[in-house]
Design brief:
Elements (H helix, E strand, L loop, with lengths): L4 H18 L13 H5 L5 E5 L2 E4 L11
GO molecular function, one term: GTP binding
Organism: Glomerella acutata (Colletotrichum acutatum)
Keywords: GTP-binding, Microtubule, Nucleotide-binding
């Protein structure tokens, strides 16, 4: 098994795409959900940037040269 950093970033991006959907967020981080539970648990993965817009609490970086 060979670890490839670019693959890790791809997996991380897929994870965040899934988490956005589970929390009722569109791809811009705007909340479009209908559940109070989603909003109550938003701070587990997101910080509120401005009214009803959320940003992930993570940064994915690939430090491998040439990828």
């Amino acid at each position: 098994f060979t670890f490839r950093p670019a693959s890790a970033v791809t997996i991380g991006a897929a994870f965040w795409q899934n988490i956005f959907g589970e929390h009722g967020l569109d791809s811009n981080g705007v909340y479009n959900g209908t559940s109070e539970l989603q909003l109550e648990r938003m701070s587990v993965y997101f910080n509120e940037a401005s009214g009803n817009k959320y940003v992930p609490r993570a940064v994915l970086v690939d430090l491998e040269p040439g990828t």
